Amino acid sequence: MSQLLKFLLLLQIILTLTGEVCAKEALPSPPPLHPTASKKSKDAIHISADHIIQGAEKESVFAWGRVKIQYQDRILRADKVMVNNVTGIGKAAGHVIMTTKDGTQMKAQSTTFDMKSEAAKLFKVRGTEAKKFFFTGKEVRRLSKNHFRLRQTSLTTCEGVLPDWEIEAGFADVIKGDRALFTNATFKIRDIPLLYIPIGYIPIDQERKTGLLPPTIGWSKQDGALFTESFFWAINQWSDTTFYIDQSTRGTQPGIEYRYTPTKNMSGTIRGSFLKDKATDENLWKIDMNHQQSLPHKFKFKGTLDLESRDSLNQATADNPGLQSRRSTDSFANITRSWDDSTLDILTRFRESTSGNGDKTFGELPNITYKVLRREIGKGPFSFNLDTSFASFVTDLNESQSEDQIFKTRRFDLHPELTLPLAPAPWLSITPTVGAQWTHYSRGLDPDSPESNPSFTSGFFREKFDIRTVFKGPKFDQIFKKKGSSTKVKHLIQPSFTHTIADNDEDDHRKIKAFDAVDKGSSQNSLRYGITQRFLKKENKESPAREILRFGVTQTFDIREATVDKSNSPGYTRKPFSALRFDLDSRPLDSLILNFDTTYDHATDLVDTFNFEAGIKPVDNFWIIMERRWIRNESNFILGTLDLSLKPGWRMQYSTHYDELTSSFRENVFSLLYDNPCKCWGASFDIVDRNFQSDDNLRRDQFKVLWNITFRGLGAIGATKEERKKLLHRDFEDPLFPNANSRR
Fold first, then answer.
1. Which pLDDT band, with edges at 50, 70 and 90, does 545 fall under?
2. d(CA 728, CA 725)
3. Does residue 279 sit in helix, strand or coil?
4. DSSP assignment, residue 359?
5. What architecture is domain 2-208?
6. String of b and e for 110-143 (b: at least 16 CB within 10 Å)?
7. Pairing state of beta strands 89-99 and 105-114?
8. What is the DSSP track for 578-608?
9. Can you say whether residue 399 is alpha, beta or left, with left for phi > 0 and alpha for psi between -120 and 50 degrees?
10. 308 vs 271, 327, 355, 385, CA distance in Å?
């Protein structure tokens, strides 16, 4: 019942706040002036008005009717003013407006002031600081350029006579560009008092401030009530730390996140957390660090340290299914350098299992790669490119901790290529490439030994030669133009052929444990052919051409498979033709998108894969997206998304993940968001339902309810924006079409 009452109170607050569109109260623009100018010195006080009378001592001035007094970048306007023209001290009454160059503006009934020292005392004030912070006060004393004190005041970041929210305080000190400190205050929504605050502050600038962060609040079917309290420490201009404590029925999980950016060329993050899991009575922990920086001589470094307890904390507590199903840590250090025509990459990587079923590891210690990009040789027609690398690998072969089951090898690879571009006809281009690859392994696998007890061979060389020839053309095109219209559509048709020959020693290939692309690849003699059609639309002469449709068909014919002797394999069926692949990408309108790709195996007369994506915007601010991913006998699922923007400020999002193989919904996420037109507060409400089975056959069901109310200047109550990002498998940032990117 208490949860229901809280929800009803929250709903009432939201309905109260959204009941009226932001009503701005603009300070009046000053009328045109009739300058009756005084001195022209920069340090002099300039006065203009409809009427000006100078005193007997010629220092005091009485002015009325559209009065303007200016000293340097400070301006005071009023109906009538009496001022000492030398000291700058005076009084003003009637529609007083005091402004400074930084955007601070105060409207008052009357004031006493000192234009030179900026000291002033204003009565019945309504003002704004840099158009982001608004205040009223029965009395305002300006103590210095950046400090003024308010009595019987109200503070808010909302515009309007009746702001959506405000803090009424007995006293407040406003430090321009910093914060407003207040005492004896009441938090109000639409003039309805909700909370008494004895002391507090509102940050005025956007810079980081040390202090407690608003709590994260939610509810999970698995873990009960979720509560996170955080403390933010702004250490200096280039580093900060967040300390947090997560509370749930699983236990208390303290954590820390340290961020640093000492220079524009260096940044990093260090995170750590610990949980004494009440559900399993296990100690779970994780530490991850990442760092990137620019090094001398244009080298760049990027590294990550990823450590976890054997029983993964991510598996136990992470919101994202990808993190929950992760079964290994991944630490690496990478140094790169690019030149105009070459690149250098030095990588050290180590992965370790966290599944608890073994101690499977994998390491690149290190992997050094140097590539020479395609460059012309002298002034001749030939061009040259080179891939070369040295790597040292280590891995467990059967998840055993036994030293003799650890496979270590060093590999040196050299792969140069020579290319000769030819154009025998204007409509035809032929590009043959000849390559040779020499690879040395310090250790290999004995192909005749069993997998459960592998044995190793001594070092050996592998030689591989390849020839690749690319044919393009002829290209056919035609332009279509409707009579009386400037719009043109161009249709392009271009076939392509690629012939690849590779000679590889199959006996040596059986000794290799494939770690990356260098190790893969066997002998082949194949012809890849295809045809591509493109439609480009041009609205007028000035507008660029836009591709509205691309359609391609490709297939590979294995000549080696078609001609090799299979007499020793009775009953063997040759399959020299690969499956046909069809690709369509289209965006004929800003409100319509249609993509698909599929593979069809004509030998079996079956479709092997089919992926489809369609998006339509039937009306403004409403997207409907549907995707289908289908692989024969493996995975079949549908992704659906609705994204509806309502006015003023409301937005609804719904996404679903349906598994066709199990006939079940893996994920449903519903979000309701509100962004106040005044930009001074917002709210969100999320319901998350996940049901999936990990690769260790454990159920990872989740059901969560999260809510959030954010007040600009005060922070958020409820789930943070980062917490919400973890929920959605889609990205709705693109106003035209949301990207279907998975959240990590």
1. confident
2. 6
3. coil
4. -
5. Sandwich (2.60)
6. bbebbbeebbbbbeebbbbbeebbbbbbeebbbe
7. antiparallel
8. PPEEEEEEEEEETTEEEEEEEEEETTTTEEE
9. left
10. 12, 10, 11, 42
Residue 144's H or E segment, with its range, is: none
Query: Cα separation of 266 and 294, whole Å?
Result: 7
Cross-strand partners of 371 = 343, 387
- 371/343 Cα distance (integer angstroms): 5
* Tokens found for residue 152: 């019987």
Closest listed residue to residue 733, CA positions, set 657, 688, 725: 725
Which run of H or E residues covers position 262? strand 251-263
Residue 716: its pLDDT value, please?
54
Q: Quick check: 487 and 539 in contact, CB under 8 A? A: yes
Q: How far apart are CA 725 and CA 744, in angstroms?
A: 9
Structure tokens at 415: 């792969």
- pLDDT tens readout for residues 651-661: 899 999 898 88
Tell me how crowded residue 706 is: count the other CB atoms within 10 A of its CB.
24
Torsion, Cα 126 129 133 134, to 10 degrees, reads 0
**Quick one: DSSP state of residue 734?**
-
Question: Tokens 């873990």 — which residue?
Answer: 223
Facing residues of 58 across strands?
A: none
User: Span 700-729, mean pLDDT?
Assistant: 60
User: What is the rounded CA–CA span in Å between residue 719 and residue 707?
Assistant: 6
pLDDT category of residue 417 using cuts at 50, 70 and 90:
very high
| Boundaries of every domain in the chain | 2-208, 620-744
Cα atoms in the Cβ-side hemisphere of radius 13 Å centred on 444: 19
The residue whose two tokens read 């229901």 is 4
Neighbours of 485 (CB within 10 A): 9
Question: How far, CA to CA in Å, does 7 sit from each of 12, 218, 286?
Answer: 9, 12, 35
Residue 40 CB coordination number (10 Å):
7
- The answer to whether 94 and 82 are in contact (CB under 8 A) is no
Beta strand ranges found along 72-145 (DSSP E): 74-84, 89-99, 105-114, 120-129, 133-142
Q: What angle do CA 700, 705, 711 make, to 5 degrees?
A: 135
Residue 574 is encoded by which pair of tokens?
A: 């040759």
Please indicate, yes or no, whether the overall pTM of this predicted structure exceeds 0.85.
Answer: no
Tokens 């001592």 found at: 57
Write down the pLDDT at residue 208. Answer: 63
State the Cα angle at 395 between 391 and 397, rounded to 5°: 135
Is the pLDDT confidence value at 162 over 50?
A: yes
Phi, psi of 346 (to 5 degrees): -120, 115
